[in-house]
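Re-run requested by the PI after the first attempt was lost when the workstation crashed. Everything re-entered from the original request form. Ligand of interest: magnesium ion.
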Amino acid sequence: MASPKSNGPEAEAGPWKLVMENDGPIKSPIKVKYTKLFINGEFVDSVSGKTFETFDPRTEEVITSVSEATKEDVDLAVKAARAAFDHGPWPRMPGSERGRILNKFADLIQQHSEELALLETWDGGKPLDLVKVIDLPKSISVLQYYAGYADKIHGMTLKMNGAYQGYTLQEPIGVCGQIIPWNFPLIMLFTKIAPALACGCTLVVKPAELTPLTALYCAHLSVEAGIPPGVLNVLPGFGAIAGAAISSHMDIDKIAFTGSTQVGRLIMEGAAKSNLKDVTLELGGKSPLIIMDDFDIDKAVEIATVATFTNMGQVCIAGTRVFVQGGIYDKFVKKIRERAKKIVIGDPFKGGVQHGPQINKIQFDKILKYIQYGKIDGANLLIGGHSLGGKGFYIEPTIFIGVEDNMRISQEEIFGPVMSILKFKTIEEVIERGNKTIYGLGAGVLTKNINVANRVARSLRAGTMWINTYLIIENDAPFGGYKMSGIGREYGPYGLQNYLQVKSVITPLHESPWL
Ligand code: NAI
Ligand code: MG
């Protein structure tokens, strides 16, 4: 997977230089302690004895080998999770006790956040500065948020028709499969496991094969926190093998997934062809960011930069279709070009670096291919467009102008640092064009006019709409996709509903001779 790179586009000199330590990438920053499958509270080898390698995106070198789960391991983990669900203490204990354990888990993540941040950067190439201020705090806070819900899950009393009364029970849905992507390995892990654990479910979790290390580290901390054996099982492995075994398992009650739309479809198929398990999908996007003439141009440039280039563009809600109104278009183009030049690219371990390598060769090649498509389809390259450095999957922040709606760079998810700038005149036009995609994950509008903001917010078909900001995700704000960006919502009370089912209990109020 991390074979040497093919040549990217011809290396025209860009304004960026990779910021490194004097003698190149910072060497093995930490010792990797946990590399085996975590089943029933223990680290074990895989049944087949197979392992796979995880790579450092900075150097393309192997970090370590990790046990590889196949179908047999999934079966063992499901057995453990089933036993823990059917007979174990976790679903039966008072919610307050589960909440206490989850808060302890959050405290342990906090105590080990330095080590976890180093591992996250090493395995995924994410800038350490960002991991420390975003990934770790967000992971901890989502765990605490749902810990607080654990003793506040309850049903309703039903008045019924006079002869009967009833109530509802909110019960944990059962054994859940959860498949995690590589772009935010820790945040996505906790966004999935926190609500499920709060509800009393038991879990079989598959981290992405590209970034398995932090999930295994957290599995170790879950034991210390007091999560009973079998409740949380973590199985590193490949999507087509372990992932497919989870989605088509007859004894898993629910599956939650974040990743590509294409794999989302496979997961739904797996669920449909097995036991019709409940499915939540958080998938791809091609989100519009609409900038009106009246908005402060410097702020707009900042927001657009963050919207596209955060995490090297490996963000499902990246606002990569930047629609700029005619009156400020030329000025905006000039300013965003200068702003992009200031992005600091280099070894993600180095302080001050904002932009590291892409995750792997496949993504690196995909992004460079889309940059070629942009040129072929007739867009103009404003800045960037090249790979950087010898080793490592570094790509320059890239901006195209003169982009048309039907170009591939305007329609397909690139998942890299590539911004498309599109010009528009009227609100009606931009609403129509903003919606012209199969996706509907996020959308943004920047304007001083509240009426315009509200009108755009109501008209764009997207799960999250930002007004005068972008990319903000909070624990209590429901998050998910319209159209082919997914099914269901995470975060907030909606996130809990994914892991509960409701039961009606009905009793007569009077003795009845027949019922
Ligand atoms: P992917 O969708 O293949 O990977 C995400 C997860 O799904 C990984 O854990 C993987 O092992 C698992 N998976 C893969 N095939 C599976 C299968 N048949 N059954 C069950 N699980 C399976 O994404 P990939 O290939 O790493 O990236 C391809 C594109 O997907 C990216 O370029 C990007 O467009 C999109 N993507 C979107 C993400 C998001 O946050 N919405 C995250 C990661 C990728
Ligand atoms: Mg890796």
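Saved to the shared folder this time. DSSP finds 15 helices and 26 strands in the chain.
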